[in-house]
Amino acid sequence: MTDTHDTNPTEKTVKLEEEPTAVTASEPITDVPQPTVASAEETVASENAFPPNEPPTQEQVVTEEDATKKCTKEEVLAKLGEIAENAEEASKQEIDSLKQAFYKLHNAQLDALKLQFVEQGGEESAFTPPADKQEEEFKQLMSVIKEKRNSMSTELEKQKEMNLQIKLSIIEELKDLVESPEDTSKSYAEFKRLQQQWNDIKLIPQGRLNELWKNYQHYVEKFYDLLKLNNEFREYDFKKNLEIKQRLCETAEKLADEKDIVSAFHQLQKLHQEYRDTGPVAKELRDELWGRFKAASTVINRRHQRHFELLKETEQHNLDQKTVICEIVESIDYNELTHHSAWDAKTREVIALQNKWKGIGFAPHKVNVKIFERFRKACDEFFRKKGEFFKLLKEGMNVNLEKKRELCKKAEEMKDSTDWKETAERFSQLQKEWKTIGPVPKKHSEVVWKRFISACDYFFEQKGKSTSSHRSAELENLSKKKSVIEQLTAIQESMDADEATQQVRQLMKEWNNIGHVPFKEKDKLFKRYNNQLDRLFKHFNMGASGKKSGGSKSGGMGTAPEGGTPSQYREREKLVRAAESIKSELQTYENNLGFLNTSSKKGNSLLTELQRKVEKLKADLELTQQKIRVFDEGMKEA
Fold it and tell me: Which residues of 420-440 are buried (b: 16+ CB within 10 A; e: fewer)?
Protein backbone atom coordinates (compact mmCIF):
# COMPACT_ATOMS: atom_id res chain seq x y z
CA MET A 1 0.00 0.00 0.00
CA THR A 2 2.86 2.36 -0.49
CA ASP A 3 1.92 5.58 -2.35
CA THR A 4 4.09 7.88 -4.63
CA HIS A 5 3.71 11.53 -5.63
CA ASP A 6 4.95 14.20 -7.98
CA THR A 7 7.15 17.04 -6.83
CA ASN A 8 5.34 20.18 -5.68
CA PRO A 9 4.72 22.06 -8.92
CA THR A 10 4.73 25.47 -7.29
CA GLU A 11 8.50 25.20 -6.90
CA LYS A 12 8.97 24.86 -10.69
CA THR A 13 6.50 27.34 -12.17
CA VAL A 14 8.12 29.35 -14.94
CA LYS A 15 9.15 32.78 -13.69
CA LEU A 16 7.88 35.54 -15.99
CA GLU A 17 9.84 38.81 -16.03
CA GLU A 18 10.00 41.72 -18.41
CA GLU A 19 12.32 41.56 -21.42
CA PRO A 20 15.19 44.06 -21.07
CA THR A 21 15.71 46.87 -23.53
CA ALA A 22 17.75 45.90 -26.58
CA VAL A 23 20.90 47.71 -27.63
CA THR A 24 20.45 50.56 -30.06
CA ALA A 25 23.21 50.93 -32.62
CA SER A 26 24.82 54.27 -33.28
CA GLU A 27 26.47 54.96 -36.61
CA PRO A 28 26.07 52.07 -39.08
CA ILE A 29 29.01 50.19 -40.56
CA THR A 30 28.15 48.81 -43.95
CA ASP A 31 30.86 46.19 -44.23
CA VAL A 32 30.25 44.35 -40.94
CA PRO A 33 27.31 41.85 -40.69
CA GLN A 34 24.88 42.12 -37.75
CA PRO A 35 25.56 39.48 -35.05
CA THR A 36 22.84 37.64 -33.13
CA VAL A 37 22.69 38.85 -29.54
CA ALA A 38 21.28 36.67 -26.80
CA SER A 39 18.35 38.53 -25.25
CA ALA A 40 17.68 39.04 -21.56
CA GLU A 41 14.32 37.20 -21.60
CA GLU A 42 16.43 34.41 -20.14
CA THR A 43 15.16 35.63 -16.81
CA VAL A 44 11.93 33.88 -17.82
CA ALA A 45 13.50 30.50 -17.28
CA SER A 46 17.07 30.73 -15.97
CA GLU A 47 19.89 28.42 -16.93
CA ASN A 48 19.64 26.69 -13.58
CA ALA A 49 15.81 26.64 -13.34
CA PHE A 50 15.37 23.14 -14.71
CA PRO A 51 18.40 20.88 -14.03
CA PRO A 52 18.73 17.36 -15.46
CA ASN A 53 17.19 14.41 -13.62
CA GLU A 54 14.12 16.55 -13.01
CA PRO A 55 11.51 14.83 -10.76
CA PRO A 56 8.97 12.94 -12.88
CA THR A 57 5.35 13.90 -13.18
CA GLN A 58 2.57 12.38 -11.07
CA GLU A 59 1.52 10.20 -14.01
CA GLN A 60 5.11 8.94 -14.47
CA VAL A 61 5.45 8.12 -10.78
CA VAL A 62 2.12 6.25 -10.72
CA THR A 63 3.28 4.26 -13.78
CA GLU A 64 6.50 3.29 -11.97
CA GLU A 65 4.44 2.35 -8.91
CA ASP A 66 2.17 0.09 -10.98
CA ALA A 67 5.22 -1.45 -12.66
CA THR A 68 6.65 -2.56 -9.30
CA LYS A 69 3.42 -3.74 -7.65
CA LYS A 70 3.54 -7.19 -9.29
CA CYS A 71 7.34 -7.62 -9.23
CA THR A 72 9.04 -10.42 -7.35
CA LYS A 73 12.11 -9.77 -5.22
CA GLU A 74 14.30 -11.24 -7.97
CA GLU A 75 12.81 -8.85 -10.52
CA VAL A 76 13.30 -5.86 -8.20
CA LEU A 77 16.94 -6.85 -7.68
CA ALA A 78 17.40 -7.25 -11.43
CA LYS A 79 16.03 -3.75 -12.05
CA LEU A 80 18.24 -2.29 -9.32
CA GLY A 81 21.21 -4.06 -10.93
CA GLU A 82 20.46 -2.33 -14.21
CA ILE A 83 20.12 1.03 -12.46
CA ALA A 84 23.38 0.50 -10.57
CA GLU A 85 25.23 0.30 -13.90
CA ASN A 86 23.98 3.75 -14.90
CA ALA A 87 22.79 5.28 -11.62
CA GLU A 88 23.52 8.83 -12.73
CA GLU A 89 20.63 8.82 -15.22
CA ALA A 90 18.02 7.05 -13.02
CA SER A 91 15.28 9.04 -11.26
CA LYS A 92 15.13 9.11 -7.47
CA GLN A 93 11.41 8.25 -7.60
CA GLU A 94 12.08 5.05 -9.53
CA ILE A 95 14.75 3.99 -7.03
CA ASP A 96 12.43 4.77 -4.07
CA SER A 97 9.58 2.84 -5.73
CA LEU A 98 11.78 -0.25 -6.18
CA LYS A 99 13.02 0.09 -2.60
CA GLN A 100 9.45 0.19 -1.25
CA ALA A 101 8.42 -2.74 -3.45
CA PHE A 102 11.35 -4.86 -2.21
CA TYR A 103 10.64 -4.25 1.48
CA LYS A 104 6.92 -4.80 0.96
CA LEU A 105 7.71 -8.26 -0.45
CA HIS A 106 10.40 -8.84 2.19
CA ASN A 107 8.06 -7.91 5.07
CA ALA A 108 5.29 -10.07 3.61
CA GLN A 109 7.64 -13.08 3.66
CA LEU A 110 8.64 -12.34 7.26
CA ASP A 111 4.97 -12.03 8.29
CA ALA A 112 4.20 -15.37 6.65
CA LEU A 113 7.15 -17.04 8.42
CA LYS A 114 6.11 -15.47 11.73
CA LEU A 115 2.51 -16.67 11.30
CA GLN A 116 3.74 -20.17 10.48
CA PHE A 117 6.00 -20.07 13.56
CA VAL A 118 3.09 -19.04 15.81
CA GLU A 119 0.73 -21.62 14.31
CA GLN A 120 3.29 -24.30 15.05
CA GLY A 121 3.18 -23.36 18.72
CA GLY A 122 5.95 -20.81 18.97
CA GLU A 123 5.70 -17.50 20.83
CA GLU A 124 5.56 -14.43 18.60
CA SER A 125 8.18 -12.63 20.70
CA ALA A 126 10.59 -15.57 20.26
CA PHE A 127 10.48 -15.44 16.46
CA THR A 128 13.86 -14.68 14.88
CA PRO A 129 13.91 -13.76 11.16
CA PRO A 130 16.22 -16.01 9.13
CA ALA A 131 19.16 -14.58 7.20
CA ASP A 132 18.14 -13.27 3.79
CA LYS A 133 20.80 -13.28 1.05
CA GLN A 134 18.49 -11.27 -1.18
CA GLU A 135 18.32 -8.49 1.41
CA GLU A 136 22.13 -8.40 1.58
CA GLU A 137 22.29 -8.20 -2.21
CA PHE A 138 19.67 -5.41 -2.11
CA LYS A 139 21.69 -3.41 0.43
CA GLN A 140 24.87 -3.77 -1.64
CA LEU A 141 23.09 -2.55 -4.79
CA MET A 142 21.59 0.42 -2.93
CA SER A 143 25.01 1.27 -1.54
CA VAL A 144 26.51 1.27 -5.05
CA ILE A 145 23.66 3.43 -6.39
CA LYS A 146 23.95 5.88 -3.49
CA GLU A 147 27.71 6.18 -3.92
CA LYS A 148 27.39 6.83 -7.66
CA ARG A 149 24.64 9.41 -7.22
CA ASN A 150 26.57 11.20 -4.48
CA SER A 151 29.58 11.23 -6.75
CA MET A 152 27.41 12.59 -9.57
CA SER A 153 26.11 15.37 -7.32
CA THR A 154 29.64 16.30 -6.30
CA GLU A 155 30.79 16.32 -9.91
CA LEU A 156 27.79 18.46 -10.88
CA GLU A 157 28.73 21.10 -8.30
CA LYS A 158 32.32 21.05 -9.51
CA GLN A 159 31.09 21.45 -13.08
CA LYS A 160 28.99 24.48 -12.07
CA GLU A 161 32.04 26.11 -10.49
CA MET A 162 34.11 25.38 -13.58
CA ASN A 163 31.37 26.86 -15.79
CA LEU A 164 31.27 29.94 -13.58
CA GLN A 165 35.01 30.48 -14.04
CA ILE A 166 34.70 30.02 -17.81
CA LYS A 167 31.89 32.58 -18.04
CA LEU A 168 33.87 34.99 -15.91
CA SER A 169 36.76 34.58 -18.33
CA ILE A 170 34.36 35.18 -21.26
CA ILE A 171 33.26 38.46 -19.66
CA GLU A 172 36.89 39.44 -19.22
CA GLU A 173 37.53 38.71 -22.90
CA LEU A 174 34.48 40.77 -23.89
CA LYS A 175 35.81 43.56 -21.71
CA ASP A 176 39.13 43.40 -23.57
CA LEU A 177 37.31 43.56 -26.92
CA VAL A 178 35.42 46.66 -25.81
CA GLU A 179 38.36 48.44 -24.18
CA SER A 180 41.04 47.47 -26.75
CA PRO A 181 39.36 47.48 -30.16
CA GLU A 182 41.45 46.14 -33.03
CA ASP A 183 40.43 45.19 -36.54
CA THR A 184 36.60 45.28 -36.71
CA SER A 185 36.23 42.03 -38.63
CA LYS A 186 38.48 40.12 -36.26
CA SER A 187 36.76 41.65 -33.20
CA TYR A 188 33.34 40.73 -34.52
CA ALA A 189 34.40 37.13 -35.25
CA GLU A 190 35.88 36.86 -31.76
CA PHE A 191 32.69 38.37 -30.31
CA LYS A 192 30.52 35.74 -32.06
CA ARG A 193 32.81 32.98 -30.83
CA LEU A 194 32.55 34.21 -27.23
CA GLN A 195 28.79 34.62 -27.53
CA GLN A 196 28.39 31.03 -28.79
CA GLN A 197 30.68 29.75 -26.04
CA TRP A 198 28.57 31.63 -23.48
CA ASN A 199 25.33 30.09 -24.80
CA ASP A 200 26.82 26.58 -24.81
CA ILE A 201 27.56 26.75 -21.10
CA LYS A 202 24.38 26.08 -19.09
CA LEU A 203 24.79 25.22 -15.41
CA ILE A 204 26.34 27.65 -12.94
CA PRO A 205 25.70 28.31 -9.21
CA GLN A 206 22.25 29.88 -8.84
CA GLY A 207 23.41 32.65 -6.54
CA ARG A 208 25.73 34.11 -9.20
CA LEU A 209 23.27 33.92 -12.09
CA ASN A 210 21.77 37.45 -12.14
CA GLU A 211 25.04 39.25 -11.40
CA LEU A 212 26.83 37.29 -14.13
CA TRP A 213 24.09 37.94 -16.70
CA LYS A 214 24.05 41.70 -16.03
CA ASN A 215 27.83 41.95 -16.48
CA TYR A 216 27.70 39.91 -19.67
CA GLN A 217 24.85 41.97 -21.11
CA HIS A 218 26.62 45.21 -20.19
CA TYR A 219 29.70 44.37 -22.28
CA VAL A 220 27.57 42.97 -25.12
CA GLU A 221 25.73 46.28 -25.35
CA LYS A 222 28.98 48.24 -25.18
CA PHE A 223 30.40 46.07 -27.95
CA TYR A 224 27.39 46.80 -30.18
CA ASP A 225 27.76 50.49 -29.52
CA LEU A 226 31.45 50.21 -30.35
CA LEU A 227 30.87 48.42 -33.63
CA LYS A 228 28.28 50.98 -34.80
CA LEU A 229 26.52 48.42 -36.97
CA ASN A 230 24.58 49.87 -39.91
CA ASN A 231 20.80 49.81 -39.88
CA GLU A 232 20.48 47.42 -42.81
CA PHE A 233 22.20 44.51 -41.04
CA ARG A 234 20.49 45.29 -37.75
CA GLU A 235 17.05 45.26 -39.36
CA TYR A 236 17.82 41.98 -41.07
CA ASP A 237 18.85 40.45 -37.73
CA PHE A 238 15.75 41.87 -36.06
CA LYS A 239 13.55 40.40 -38.80
CA LYS A 240 14.95 36.89 -38.36
CA ASN A 241 14.61 37.09 -34.59
CA LEU A 242 11.02 38.34 -35.00
CA GLU A 243 10.10 35.32 -37.14
CA ILE A 244 11.56 32.92 -34.60
CA LYS A 245 9.82 34.56 -31.62
CA GLN A 246 6.49 34.75 -33.44
CA ARG A 247 6.73 31.03 -34.10
CA LEU A 248 7.51 30.44 -30.40
CA CYS A 249 4.47 32.52 -29.41
CA GLU A 250 2.20 30.47 -31.68
CA THR A 251 3.57 27.20 -30.31
CA ALA A 252 3.08 28.41 -26.71
CA GLU A 253 -0.53 29.45 -27.47
CA LYS A 254 -1.33 26.01 -28.93
CA LEU A 255 -0.16 24.38 -25.71
CA ALA A 256 -3.37 25.65 -24.07
CA ASP A 257 -5.20 22.86 -25.95
CA GLU A 258 -2.78 20.15 -24.86
CA LYS A 259 -4.69 17.51 -22.82
CA ASP A 260 -1.62 16.42 -20.88
CA ILE A 261 -1.18 19.39 -18.56
CA VAL A 262 2.15 18.27 -17.12
CA SER A 263 3.56 17.62 -20.60
CA ALA A 264 2.42 21.08 -21.73
CA PHE A 265 4.23 22.63 -18.78
CA HIS A 266 7.52 20.93 -19.63
CA GLN A 267 7.19 21.86 -23.31
CA LEU A 268 6.72 25.48 -22.24
CA GLN A 269 10.02 25.37 -20.37
CA LYS A 270 11.82 24.34 -23.56
CA LEU A 271 10.12 27.19 -25.46
CA HIS A 272 11.34 29.66 -22.83
CA GLN A 273 14.88 28.36 -23.23
CA GLU A 274 14.67 28.82 -27.01
CA TYR A 275 13.12 32.29 -26.57
CA ARG A 276 15.96 33.44 -24.37
CA ASP A 277 18.58 32.07 -26.80
CA THR A 278 17.07 34.12 -29.66
CA GLY A 279 18.40 37.63 -30.22
CA PRO A 280 16.40 40.87 -29.85
CA VAL A 281 13.76 42.32 -32.18
CA ALA A 282 12.96 45.92 -33.12
CA LYS A 283 12.40 48.07 -30.05
CA GLU A 284 8.84 49.07 -31.03
CA LEU A 285 7.80 45.35 -31.29
CA ARG A 286 9.67 44.07 -28.28
CA ASP A 287 7.09 44.75 -25.54
CA GLU A 288 4.16 43.59 -27.66
CA LEU A 289 5.89 40.31 -28.61
CA TRP A 290 7.03 39.62 -25.09
CA GLY A 291 3.55 40.38 -23.75
CA ARG A 292 2.06 37.83 -26.17
CA PHE A 293 4.54 35.13 -25.14
CA LYS A 294 4.08 35.97 -21.46
CA ALA A 295 0.25 35.75 -21.75
CA ALA A 296 0.48 32.29 -23.37
CA SER A 297 2.87 31.19 -20.61
CA THR A 298 0.49 32.44 -17.91
CA VAL A 299 -2.33 30.24 -19.26
CA ILE A 300 -0.16 27.12 -19.12
CA ASN A 301 1.17 27.97 -15.66
CA ARG A 302 -2.33 28.47 -14.26
CA ARG A 303 -3.54 25.18 -15.73
CA HIS A 304 -0.52 23.44 -14.26
CA GLN A 305 -1.05 25.02 -10.84
CA ARG A 306 -4.76 24.18 -10.83
CA HIS A 307 -4.00 20.60 -11.81
CA PHE A 308 -1.93 20.09 -8.68
CA GLU A 309 -4.36 22.00 -6.49
CA LEU A 310 -7.11 19.57 -7.54
CA LEU A 311 -4.72 16.69 -6.93
CA LYS A 312 -4.09 17.98 -3.41
CA GLU A 313 -7.84 18.27 -2.73
CA THR A 314 -8.36 14.69 -3.87
CA GLU A 315 -5.49 13.47 -1.71
CA GLN A 316 -6.89 15.31 1.31
CA HIS A 317 -10.30 13.70 0.76
CA ASN A 318 -8.59 10.31 0.54
CA LEU A 319 -6.79 11.07 3.82
CA ASP A 320 -10.12 11.87 5.51
CA GLN A 321 -11.60 8.55 4.37
CA LYS A 322 -8.55 6.61 5.51
CA THR A 323 -8.58 8.39 8.87
CA VAL A 324 -12.19 7.29 9.47
CA ILE A 325 -11.27 3.69 8.64
CA CYS A 326 -8.35 3.85 11.09
CA GLU A 327 -10.62 5.22 13.82
CA ILE A 328 -13.16 2.42 13.27
CA VAL A 329 -10.52 -0.31 13.63
CA GLU A 330 -8.83 1.42 16.58
CA SER A 331 -12.15 1.81 18.42
CA ILE A 332 -12.95 -1.92 18.47
CA ASP A 333 -14.01 -2.90 22.01
CA TYR A 334 -12.24 -6.22 22.55
CA ASN A 335 -14.11 -6.75 25.84
CA GLU A 336 -17.29 -7.36 23.83
CA LEU A 337 -15.69 -10.03 21.63
CA THR A 338 -16.26 -12.93 23.99
CA HIS A 339 -17.24 -15.75 21.65
CA HIS A 340 -16.40 -17.29 18.30
CA SER A 341 -19.23 -15.74 16.26
CA ALA A 342 -18.45 -12.22 17.52
CA TRP A 343 -14.83 -12.53 16.41
CA ASP A 344 -15.89 -13.93 13.03
CA ALA A 345 -18.31 -11.05 12.46
CA LYS A 346 -15.70 -8.48 13.48
CA THR A 347 -13.08 -10.16 11.25
CA ARG A 348 -15.39 -9.88 8.24
CA GLU A 349 -15.86 -6.21 9.05
CA VAL A 350 -12.10 -5.55 9.30
CA ILE A 351 -11.46 -7.37 6.00
CA ALA A 352 -14.20 -5.27 4.36
CA LEU A 353 -12.48 -2.11 5.63
CA GLN A 354 -9.16 -3.36 4.25
CA ASN A 355 -10.75 -3.88 0.83
CA LYS A 356 -12.27 -0.40 0.98
CA TRP A 357 -8.84 1.01 1.88
CA LYS A 358 -7.36 -0.55 -1.27
CA GLY A 359 -9.95 1.27 -3.39
CA ILE A 360 -9.04 4.70 -1.99
CA GLY A 361 -6.35 6.68 -3.79
CA PHE A 362 -3.19 8.28 -2.43
CA ALA A 363 -3.12 10.55 0.62
CA PRO A 364 -0.83 13.64 0.71
CA HIS A 365 2.80 12.66 0.29
CA LYS A 366 3.91 13.90 3.74
CA VAL A 367 1.41 11.72 5.63
CA ASN A 368 0.76 8.87 3.20
CA VAL A 369 3.20 6.47 4.84
CA LYS A 370 2.15 7.50 8.35
CA ILE A 371 -1.57 6.89 7.74
CA PHE A 372 -0.79 3.48 6.21
CA GLU A 373 1.39 2.54 9.19
CA ARG A 374 -1.41 3.63 11.53
CA PHE A 375 -3.94 1.43 9.71
CA ARG A 376 -1.57 -1.52 9.56
CA LYS A 377 -0.80 -1.20 13.27
CA ALA A 378 -4.52 -1.24 14.14
CA CYS A 379 -5.15 -4.28 11.93
CA ASP A 380 -2.11 -6.11 13.34
CA GLU A 381 -3.36 -5.43 16.86
CA PHE A 382 -6.79 -6.83 15.98
CA PHE A 383 -5.44 -10.06 14.52
CA ARG A 384 -2.96 -10.44 17.35
CA LYS A 385 -5.73 -10.27 19.94
CA LYS A 386 -7.84 -12.59 17.83
CA GLY A 387 -5.02 -15.14 17.84
CA GLU A 388 -4.69 -14.86 21.62
CA PHE A 389 -8.46 -15.30 22.07
CA PHE A 390 -8.66 -18.42 19.94
CA LYS A 391 -5.60 -19.86 21.61
CA LEU A 392 -7.29 -19.56 25.02
CA LEU A 393 -10.62 -20.65 23.54
CA LYS A 394 -9.03 -23.76 22.09
CA GLU A 395 -7.59 -24.67 25.48
CA GLY A 396 -10.99 -24.19 27.15
CA MET A 397 -12.73 -26.16 24.40
CA ASN A 398 -10.41 -29.11 24.93
CA VAL A 399 -11.36 -29.14 28.61
CA ASN A 400 -15.07 -28.99 27.67
CA LEU A 401 -14.57 -31.85 25.20
CA GLU A 402 -13.18 -34.09 27.94
CA LYS A 403 -16.14 -33.22 30.19
CA LYS A 404 -18.65 -34.06 27.46
CA ARG A 405 -16.88 -37.27 26.61
CA GLU A 406 -17.18 -38.24 30.28
CA LEU A 407 -20.94 -37.57 30.12
CA CYS A 408 -21.14 -39.67 26.94
CA LYS A 409 -19.43 -42.52 28.76
CA LYS A 410 -21.91 -42.32 31.66
CA ALA A 411 -24.87 -42.18 29.25
CA GLU A 412 -23.63 -45.22 27.34
CA GLU A 413 -23.21 -47.13 30.60
CA MET A 414 -26.84 -46.37 31.58
CA LYS A 415 -28.61 -46.74 28.22
CA ASP A 416 -29.33 -50.48 28.67
CA SER A 417 -30.78 -50.06 32.17
CA THR A 418 -34.39 -51.23 32.69
CA ASP A 419 -34.86 -49.23 35.85
CA TRP A 420 -36.90 -46.79 33.84
CA LYS A 421 -37.79 -44.25 36.50
CA GLU A 422 -34.46 -43.86 38.28
CA THR A 423 -32.43 -44.06 35.05
CA ALA A 424 -34.68 -41.49 33.38
CA GLU A 425 -33.99 -39.10 36.24
CA ARG A 426 -30.25 -39.71 35.94
CA PHE A 427 -30.43 -39.07 32.19
CA SER A 428 -32.28 -35.83 32.92
CA GLN A 429 -29.46 -34.76 35.24
CA LEU A 430 -26.87 -35.60 32.60
CA GLN A 431 -28.74 -33.47 30.07
CA LYS A 432 -28.83 -30.53 32.49
CA GLU A 433 -25.12 -30.90 33.16
CA TRP A 434 -24.44 -31.08 29.41
CA LYS A 435 -26.06 -27.68 28.92
CA THR A 436 -23.79 -26.08 31.52
CA ILE A 437 -20.64 -27.12 29.65
CA GLY A 438 -19.31 -24.65 27.12
CA PRO A 439 -18.47 -25.24 23.44
CA VAL A 440 -15.99 -27.80 22.13
CA PRO A 441 -13.75 -27.75 19.01
CA LYS A 442 -15.91 -27.62 15.91
CA LYS A 443 -14.48 -30.79 14.37
CA HIS A 444 -15.55 -32.76 17.49
CA SER A 445 -18.81 -30.96 18.25
CA GLU A 446 -21.15 -32.98 16.04
CA VAL A 447 -19.47 -36.30 16.85
CA VAL A 448 -19.64 -35.93 20.63
CA TRP A 449 -23.21 -34.59 20.48
CA LYS A 450 -24.41 -37.52 18.36
CA ARG A 451 -22.71 -39.93 20.73
CA PHE A 452 -24.47 -38.40 23.74
CA ILE A 453 -27.89 -37.94 22.17
CA SER A 454 -27.79 -41.42 20.64
CA ALA A 455 -27.35 -42.96 24.09
CA CYS A 456 -30.17 -40.80 25.49
CA ASP A 457 -32.51 -41.53 22.60
CA TYR A 458 -31.74 -45.24 22.75
CA PHE A 459 -32.70 -45.40 26.42
CA PHE A 460 -35.91 -43.44 25.99
CA GLU A 461 -36.82 -45.42 22.88
CA GLN A 462 -36.41 -48.68 24.82
CA LYS A 463 -38.37 -47.20 27.66
CA GLY A 464 -41.11 -46.22 25.23
CA LYS A 465 -41.23 -49.69 23.72
CA SER A 466 -41.53 -51.24 27.15
CA THR A 467 -44.56 -49.16 27.89
CA SER A 468 -46.86 -50.47 25.16
CA SER A 469 -49.87 -48.95 26.83
CA HIS A 470 -48.61 -45.58 25.74
CA ARG A 471 -48.40 -46.64 22.13
CA SER A 472 -52.03 -46.01 21.33
CA ALA A 473 -51.89 -42.63 23.09
CA GLU A 474 -48.82 -41.64 21.04
CA LEU A 475 -50.59 -42.58 17.81
CA GLU A 476 -53.59 -40.52 18.88
CA ASN A 477 -51.27 -37.59 19.70
CA LEU A 478 -49.65 -38.01 16.28
CA SER A 479 -53.04 -37.65 14.62
CA LYS A 480 -53.85 -34.56 16.69
CA LYS A 481 -50.56 -32.82 15.84
CA LYS A 482 -51.02 -33.59 12.16
CA SER A 483 -54.42 -31.98 12.45
CA VAL A 484 -52.85 -28.86 14.00
CA ILE A 485 -50.33 -28.67 11.14
CA GLU A 486 -53.15 -29.03 8.58
CA GLN A 487 -55.05 -26.18 10.25
CA LEU A 488 -51.93 -23.99 10.22
CA THR A 489 -51.42 -24.85 6.55
CA ALA A 490 -55.03 -23.88 5.81
CA ILE A 491 -54.55 -20.35 7.15
CA GLN A 492 -54.42 -18.17 4.05
CA GLU A 493 -52.15 -15.15 3.79
CA SER A 494 -55.14 -13.09 2.73
CA MET A 495 -56.78 -13.58 6.16
CA ASP A 496 -57.16 -10.65 8.53
CA ALA A 497 -53.95 -10.26 10.59
CA ASP A 498 -55.63 -10.14 14.02
CA GLU A 499 -57.81 -13.11 13.24
CA ALA A 500 -54.85 -15.08 11.91
CA THR A 501 -52.76 -14.19 14.96
CA GLN A 502 -55.46 -15.35 17.35
CA GLN A 503 -55.94 -18.59 15.45
CA VAL A 504 -52.19 -19.30 15.36
CA ARG A 505 -51.87 -18.68 19.08
CA GLN A 506 -54.76 -21.03 19.76
CA LEU A 507 -53.23 -23.75 17.58
CA MET A 508 -49.84 -23.28 19.26
CA LYS A 509 -51.46 -23.74 22.65
CA GLU A 510 -53.30 -26.80 21.40
CA TRP A 511 -50.03 -28.24 20.03
CA ASN A 512 -48.26 -27.73 23.36
CA ASN A 513 -51.06 -29.49 25.22
CA ILE A 514 -50.72 -32.60 23.06
CA GLY A 515 -48.49 -35.31 24.51
CA HIS A 516 -45.74 -37.43 23.00
CA VAL A 517 -45.85 -38.91 19.51
CA PRO A 518 -43.95 -41.98 18.23
CA PHE A 519 -40.20 -41.42 18.40
CA LYS A 520 -39.55 -41.92 14.68
CA GLU A 521 -42.14 -39.31 13.76
CA LYS A 522 -41.35 -36.53 16.23
CA ASP A 523 -38.50 -34.73 14.38
CA LYS A 524 -40.17 -34.81 10.98
CA LEU A 525 -43.47 -33.68 12.51
CA PHE A 526 -41.86 -30.80 14.41
CA LYS A 527 -40.04 -29.63 11.31
CA ARG A 528 -43.34 -29.38 9.40
CA TYR A 529 -44.92 -27.55 12.33
CA ASN A 530 -41.99 -25.11 12.62
CA ASN A 531 -41.98 -24.38 8.88
CA GLN A 532 -45.64 -23.36 8.98
CA LEU A 533 -45.00 -21.11 11.99
CA ASP A 534 -42.11 -19.45 10.16
CA ARG A 535 -44.33 -18.76 7.18
CA LEU A 536 -47.13 -17.25 9.25
CA PHE A 537 -44.82 -15.29 11.59
CA LYS A 538 -43.05 -13.62 8.66
CA HIS A 539 -46.22 -12.84 6.68
CA PHE A 540 -48.32 -11.48 9.55
CA ASN A 541 -45.31 -9.99 11.40
CA MET A 542 -46.33 -11.82 14.58
CA GLY A 543 -42.85 -11.49 16.09
CA ALA A 544 -42.85 -7.68 15.88
CA SER A 545 -44.24 -7.12 19.39
CA GLY A 546 -45.13 -8.99 22.52
CA LYS A 547 -48.87 -8.28 22.05
CA LYS A 548 -49.09 -9.90 18.62
CA SER A 549 -46.91 -12.85 19.45
CA GLY A 550 -48.66 -13.55 22.72
CA GLY A 551 -45.27 -14.53 24.14
CA SER A 552 -43.25 -13.23 27.05
CA LYS A 553 -42.58 -9.50 26.99
CA SER A 554 -39.09 -9.95 28.31
CA GLY A 555 -37.81 -11.46 25.10
CA GLY A 556 -35.23 -13.39 27.11
CA MET A 557 -33.57 -16.68 26.35
CA GLY A 558 -33.03 -18.03 29.84
CA THR A 559 -32.51 -21.64 30.90
CA ALA A 560 -34.89 -24.03 29.19
CA PRO A 561 -37.73 -25.27 31.45
CA GLU A 562 -37.79 -28.87 32.52
CA GLY A 563 -40.06 -31.40 30.96
CA GLY A 564 -38.90 -31.36 27.34
CA THR A 565 -37.57 -34.25 25.33
CA PRO A 566 -33.91 -34.50 24.26
CA SER A 567 -34.93 -33.53 20.73
CA GLN A 568 -36.66 -30.39 22.03
CA TYR A 569 -33.60 -29.46 24.08
CA ARG A 570 -31.44 -29.92 21.02
CA GLU A 571 -33.63 -27.72 18.80
CA ARG A 572 -33.86 -25.04 21.49
CA GLU A 573 -30.06 -25.00 21.92
CA LYS A 574 -29.61 -24.40 18.19
CA LEU A 575 -32.01 -21.46 18.33
CA VAL A 576 -30.26 -19.97 21.37
CA ARG A 577 -26.88 -20.18 19.63
CA ALA A 578 -28.34 -18.54 16.55
CA ALA A 579 -29.85 -15.72 18.62
CA GLU A 580 -26.56 -15.08 20.44
CA SER A 581 -24.72 -14.89 17.14
CA ILE A 582 -27.26 -12.38 15.77
CA LYS A 583 -27.05 -10.26 18.94
CA SER A 584 -23.25 -10.15 18.72
CA GLU A 585 -23.30 -9.10 15.09
CA LEU A 586 -26.00 -6.51 15.82
CA GLN A 587 -23.92 -5.01 18.63
CA THR A 588 -20.92 -4.74 16.30
CA TYR A 589 -22.81 -2.76 13.67
CA GLU A 590 -24.50 -0.51 16.27
CA ASN A 591 -21.06 0.32 17.72
CA ASN A 592 -19.75 1.25 14.27
CA LEU A 593 -22.74 3.54 13.67
CA GLY A 594 -21.45 5.67 16.54
CA PHE A 595 -18.43 6.69 14.47
CA LEU A 596 -20.41 7.91 11.45
CA ASN A 597 -23.06 10.57 10.87
CA THR A 598 -25.09 11.72 7.89
CA SER A 599 -23.44 15.15 7.80
CA SER A 600 -19.99 13.66 7.40
CA LYS A 601 -18.77 13.17 3.85
CA LYS A 602 -16.21 10.67 4.97
CA GLY A 603 -18.77 8.54 6.87
CA ASN A 604 -21.70 8.81 4.50
CA SER A 605 -20.51 6.00 2.22
CA LEU A 606 -20.73 3.42 5.05
CA LEU A 607 -23.71 4.74 6.98
CA THR A 608 -26.55 3.54 4.73
CA GLU A 609 -25.19 0.00 4.45
CA LEU A 610 -24.68 -0.31 8.24
CA GLN A 611 -28.23 0.92 9.00
CA ARG A 612 -29.73 -1.57 6.55
CA LYS A 613 -27.87 -4.45 8.17
CA VAL A 614 -28.91 -3.35 11.67
CA GLU A 615 -32.62 -3.37 10.75
CA LYS A 616 -32.31 -6.79 9.13
CA LEU A 617 -30.54 -8.25 12.18
CA LYS A 618 -33.16 -6.83 14.57
CA ALA A 619 -35.96 -8.52 12.62
CA ASP A 620 -34.08 -11.84 12.56
CA LEU A 621 -33.40 -11.65 16.31
CA GLU A 622 -37.05 -10.97 17.15
CA LEU A 623 -38.22 -13.94 15.08
CA THR A 624 -35.63 -16.28 16.66
CA GLN A 625 -36.58 -15.17 20.19
CA GLN A 626 -40.23 -15.79 19.41
CA LYS A 627 -39.42 -19.35 18.37
CA ILE A 628 -37.55 -19.90 21.63
CA ARG A 629 -40.59 -18.66 23.61
CA VAL A 630 -42.78 -21.12 21.72
CA PHE A 631 -40.43 -23.96 22.69
CA ASP A 632 -40.40 -22.86 26.34
CA GLU A 633 -44.20 -22.71 26.55
CA GLY A 634 -44.51 -26.18 25.08
CA MET A 635 -41.85 -27.62 27.38
CA LYS A 636 -43.45 -26.03 30.47
CA GLU A 637 -46.84 -27.46 29.69
CA ALA A 638 -45.27 -30.85 28.97
Answer: eeebbebbeebbeebeeeeeb
